[in-house]
Amino acid sequence: MAFDGVTIAALVKECKDLLTGARIYKIAQPEADELQLTLKTKTGQHYLLLSASASLPLIYLTGRTKQSPMTAPNFCMLLRKHIQNGRIVSITQPGLERIMQIDIEHMSELGDLCRKKLIVEVMGKHSNIIFCSEEDVIIDSIKHISGMVSSVREVLPGKTYFIPKTEDKADPAAFMENSLSESDRKKQFHDLVFQKPTPLYKALYSSFTGFSPILAQELCFLAGLDPDRSALSYRQESSAARTEVSGADFELLYRQFAVLMKEVTTGCFSPVIYYDGKSPVEFSALPMKLYRDAVSKSFSSISELLETYYAEKNAQTRIRQRSADLRKIVQTILERTVKKYDLQCRQIKDTEKREKYKLYGELLHTYGYDAEPGAKSLEALNYYTNETIAIPLDPTLTAAENAKKYFEKYGKLKRTYETLSELTVQVKEEIDHLESITASLDIAEQESDLVEIKEELIAAGYIRRKGGAKKEKITSKPFHYISSDGFHMYVGKNNFQNDELTFKFAVGNDWWFHAKGQPGSHVIVRTEGAELPDATFEEAARLAAHYSKGRGQEKVEIDYTEKKNVKKPGGAKPGFVVYYTNYSMMIDSDISEIRQL
Prior knowledge:
- The protein is an alpha+beta fold and 597 residues long.
- A hairpin with a 5-residue loop joins strand 15 and strand 16.
- Helix 9 runs antiparallel to helix 11.
- About 2% of the residues have low confidence.
């Protein structure tokens, strides 16, 4: 979810409960647009991270510190001068804006008690950390915004700080707490949302501050309304006179809005992350029915959620970045190999006429005496089919010479066919191998996984080891799961691990699973001599489907057999096996209910 006003509200509550009265012990600026405050409270020491990064603005409490530069930047030195050893008086959020304001009490150089404000604006590329006096005069900011950059507001020392007004947007907290009667409040909500010829969810988040698109979609979902339908069409249905408030659709949406704001204003937050497999796809300060079918993980604090979510997101991004070079190499070779294979297939197709030339030669040897000198064709009986066919002739050659010419064409095409038949098998194996490496890159989770894939590429001759470089140490291990019946299941992350699992780790009566006819991991289930229950067969098959090219498909065909039936041909590429006795099943690739160790 976007870092919206509801997320800020959860952070403000958490920080207010924990940090009110805290003393600012240290101030550091690890990055150009980031602050870290070390705070001491009665319950211990805490670290508050404040980031105004344009790409990833953040606020959260953490238990870890970040390394700071040897020389502190000017903004950091200014804060140390004014508020180090100061005390946090209050932490607030104006309305439901994406803003956290920290009021700090400190002693001036003359020994007078003063107040300052540290304001953190989490607004995407417009994010900033602004240090103000009690009278809202800007002392300095981590980013200076001049009139050349923004015509709406300058953020410069000496300027008066203010929150830019958001046109046509209402403060939802104040909206629900005003003195209006319930019927007047409903009418106002009706006029705000249902007057816009935009999708309903867009009308919601463009009418109230602090609402993100995904939160607006959640409200529509809870109300059972189509978020993509025009809000104006709902208004026309819900009120014939346009001044009256009625209609079930409107009532449902308003009720959900009121419930949401009550949870926000009373601080009833339940932070949760939603996953697609192992990938975090969304987070929220409140549970979301929109993701009811996704795997979820609850947290006791919004800070813990944010630290976990972005750490996992960053880990995935880092692995993608580290694997980019390997992906490019594999993709380039794969594209070239596929082109070669397609060309060879077309050449093989061209050799299909070879048998016709052989037949022409045989028939000319048999009936060539009937051919007249200079004739351009010869009618002859095909003694294989008892049909008469016309054989084209070169009029400058005799029948015997024409027969010799056809036999030469046949021989050339036959040799081409035999050569290409062997080559296409080799090239197809190479394509399968490269596609399996691509699949391995897709499931790599750690840098150690990439090391083993790189070694496979070196062993295959696709890349060279740099001069003098030693073989890197392999520390990557297969995925390890346990079935609902207690059986241990192992999944190879790459072709080297697939071979290791199948031919060195597994024993004869263990079960082996693999997606049929497509790249994927080998899955081994250790039986320890016991008979596998049906549930374990299905869970192992799901793992094979998930860790294959068929991941995400509704159904994937999985072959499975006892390990003793799986063989590796001599000289075969890593991960390539053959088997002739197996069972098959169609299964989905959802492994959310399978426990990983």
